[in-house]
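Q: Could you write out the predicted structure for this multi-component system? I'm mainly interested in how the pieces pack against one another.
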Amino acid sequence: MAGFVSVGCRTGLVVASLVAVPAVYGQDAAAWLQRAAGAARSLNYVGTIVYEHGGRVETSRLVHLLESGSEFEKLTNLDGPAREVIRNNDLVRCYYPDAKIIRIEPRSFRNAFPSLLPQQLNALAAHYFFRKGELARIAGLETQAFIFEPKDGLRYGHKFWADIASGLLLKARLLNEKFEPIEQFAFTDIQIGVKLDRELVKPPFSSLPTGWQVRESPPGEVQPQETGWVVKDLPAGFAKVVEGFRTLRGKSAPVAHLVFSDGLVAVSVFVEPVPPTPQPVGLSQQGGINVYSRQLDDYLVTVLGEAPGATVRQIAYSVAHR
Amino acid sequence: MVMGKLQVAPGDDAAAGAVVKAEEISLLVDGELEVEHIERVCTRLRDGASVTTWVCYHTIGDALRGSSAIMPGFAARFATRLGEEPTVLAPPRRGPAPAAMAWAAAATVAAVSIVGWVAMTTLPMGDGTLPAALATARQAATVRAADTRPVVNNEYLLVHQEYSPTTAIQGARPYLRAVAATDPDARP
């Protein structure tokens, strides 16, 4: 451990001199993150990803290419039904041959790291220890491991392995308070910076086969505005990133959506009128995502994010009318 | 719910009179009941409430293992058929060897399973009534299954990923979660 100093307290001259240390730390951590984010978007690569969560293992093939400033990506799962996800810039199409359904999703990917705000850097430094880990060989490439270790029980630990040559993440692991893996993504083989043909990211068919359905989601953009909802007891380090209403497929009324981030992960709060069909309440988990739902008056509050169950629960119970 | 009248073996009134504890049935279903209790529990399994509990635990087990859902009215039909079966259990005599007791338990379970299988395959379906106890069992199973195979609102999950900073550094990672989903109906 490099012995970085927390900046939990930001007042006084003494603290002012300490802030300089985490700032350097923050830049170092941010440099890794920004390089990884840039590589993920701008490089051509093709490889096999293994996703492990809750004792299950799923293998997928990923192709990513950038052509004339346009980003194409295709993900095919290799186990079970041959589901595919094809992304062209902000348009995502999911093909589910088992259900004969195509989902079309307009998605704007906010690339958070290339534009890390100073307060996000401060939050990173205040709530995580950052350190470089070992040099490791992954998918035949030399990588540098780096670790974000939480300073409290409100967040998970993160370990990343970045390809030294390109910065691309070849492995990522989410760790609980006992430093045990909760979820892991890893390339088992990868080619980076190769010439790739557009054929590789082509949809499985050009015209819709008979019997298939198209389900198109409404534009998902949040109109930033006050929703009338507030989180009173926000866990330390989390700050609001966005607040507004959005229209979602399957929801009759607009849903209030508030996003909070500690610089490394985000937690979403959704508030909707109680749906006519009963919804499960309480805590559930999918891989590294914890979800907590509860009813508040005539509303259903759902909180989810890559944070421990206690954190999403705390947020769910502190949602209130403004 | 209406349960069929079940016979009590003669000479075993004292044992059959007491209600079997749900925990004991649970242990029996899980194969964890201590050998010396197996025969006693099996013998008392003939009262309606215990049989319902026994069926419930199997339903929960099936749901947790992702086996096919039980058919509506199964418990009622099962109980009726079981009521019509001749009583095969003999009252306990001299303490038999543990192995014999285990065999007795296995035989009981096998017999009950066969009855259940016959009930499910030969009786007409679609009476539409799900006994309350079974409904509760299903609910419990759903809640417990949520621990292992949760149904996370996919719409929320995908929307959330747009804002997750970790998504940004891992490209298609959120969609790994989407394509890895085991239940296609819950996803698209």
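A: Regarding packing and overall arrangement: The helical segments of chain A are 13-42, 118-127, 309-317.
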